[in-house]
Prior knowledge:
Layout: H1 7-27, H2 32-46, H3 50-65
Helix pairs in contact: 1-2, 1-3
Amino acid sequence: MASCPTVKSQVIRGVIGVAALVGAYFAFAYYQPLTYLLIGVALFAMRGCPACWVAGMCDAVKQKRAPTETAKGPK
């Protein structure tokens, strides 16, 4: 599910997405086309809705904590 396997890349995408959403919130009263552009940037950065980003972040953390399996075979 996660498009970025590392936690660092997930955090960077999240910061960009949240910054774009905050910018869209403040731009709404002054210039609405900019709002729509920033919402598009946020959706692109998060690769979907914020819930999709959270799911990707959970997957990245789970992959980081999972022990690496080796192919030793049965004993």
